[in-house]
């Protein structure tokens, strides 16, 4: 029942936004343990880049950090995604919260990406 409401919210959001080459869609997937951030070009149906809390780049970056709370992990995922996007020449994105409420880990990831230099 909760998943049905989440899907309905997600479809309602997705009707209004789409990613392009110059302004891809920043899509978020959240689980109980991990968070995933994906840059998608919807016109070409391609994933441009992805970062998650279980990716090798993130693990290497987060080993030396002390704070292991999920919100701080989400913020670091956003920072790493912004770095990868900047390396690919992407400065602006369309934010797709994936049906999740904009607070907690979703908000932390968005703020981390903004700190890294991405514009929403």
Write structural notes for this entry:
The mean pLDDT is 92. Helix 3 packs parallel to helix 4. The chain has 120 residues and is α+β, with helices and mostly antiparallel strands. A four-stranded mixed sheet has the order 3-2-1-4, with helices on one face. The protein contains four helices and four strands; from the N terminus they run H-E-E-E-H-H-E-H. Helix content is 41%, strand content 19%.
Unreliable spans: none
Strand order of the largest sheet: 3-2-1-4
Over the alpha carbons, how many angstroms does the gyration radius reach?
14 Å
The 3D shape can be described as globular
Helix residue percentage? 40-55%
The percentage of residues in β strands lies in 15-25%
Distance between the termini: 31 Å
* Element-by-element helix/strand order: HEEEHHEH
Helical segment tally?
Answer: 4
Keywords:
single chain; 4 helices; four-stranded mixed β-sheet; 120 residues; globular; 4 strands
Give the topology.
Layout lengths: L1 H13 L10 E6 L4 E7 L4 E7 L3 H7 L7 H18 L6 E3 L8 H11 L5
Parallel strand pairs: 1-4
Antiparallel strand pairs: 1-2, 2-3
Helix pairs in contact: 3-4
What is this entry, summarized?
This protein has 120 residues and is of the alpha+beta class. The radius of gyration is 14 Å and the shape is globular.
